[in-house]
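Recall that a protein's primary structure is simply its ordered list of amino acids. Everything else, from secondary elements to tertiary packing, is in principle encoded there. The following example makes that idea concrete.
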Amino acid sequence: PTCATASAASLGGERGFATLVELLAPFVTANYRVARALLTAERFDAVLGSNLAFGLFWASMERRLPGVMVSATPLFWASARAPAQMLDLELPSWLLGPVAGALRASLMAFADHALCSLAREIGPLAIDPSATAIEEGLALHLGTWSEILRSGHPGVPSAWRARGFASAGRLGAPSAVLSRDCEAFLERGSAPVVVALGSIYSLGSDDVVRGVVEACRELGERCLVVGPGPRGAPLGDDVAATPYAAYDALFPRARGVVIHGGAGTTGEALRAGVPSVVVPFAFDQFGLSWHVERLGTGVRVAKMRRTQTRLRDAIARACEDESLRERAADVRGQLAGAADGGPIGGRLVEQALGVAR
């Protein structure tokens, strides 16, 4: 079957979901117009898009085509019946269900209102443009995480399926290759602490990166930053920065990794089998940082009251705590023995389309 596709990057900010809507509105509008023209001009069997590709699903609903939504993080599946820690602040277990249910209901109500308002600006649509209607009409809602990260979803609709982590970083190549400078740094000393804050947060996290570099110097650990190095701070012989590195090639060679808790980065850290220090900034990163801590493969450093001392202590623990290292290696073994999520996702899509027909 042929599919029209769309995706959107993870977004965040201090203004929360209001900022998200402001940033997504032009994307949703353009996405809808392009998808509508494409689906009218060509024949497709289904559409597949991220959980933010609302415009694509508007167009598919108008054409009565099956829709497959892809979610990168279990945060979007949390509910009163399947709660999880999802905030920067830890909640008592008895409060998790009510809070998860309230947040889910509030988020859906907010999304419904925002999408319906945006649809009115575009013009009258022949379908219900709400997020609730989109979810209810899906042929498949595909989760791209492993059950080891988030298992058990009581009450989740049958069309919602988690496929497991897919191999990433290689983009179809037989093996990932690091840059010559990166290889040279790795080979001339002990395994470094790798700082990898993803494609967005690495651009605006000078304070955190600088704090990690300073902590590594205090601890006598080498440090490799993926992305911009800390501005205004010298690197030196034991600190280096590389503009890009494939995580699946770099993370297994690290002593520990400092990550922001993004969905893809967290999956690569778990697959690498090295202890993680998770420094979340926004949205699903809070929830994923709790999952890493629950698994026993890393240390969460909360955004609230984040200090240099807490950051240094977390890095020291990731580098020195053998129980973290053993548990990280155990999780790596479990993931290595699991089927790749890419082909599994493909089979689930084919099954869903067969049922939809």
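Residues 1-17 have pLDDT under 50 and may be disordered. The first strand starts at residue 3 and ends at 6.
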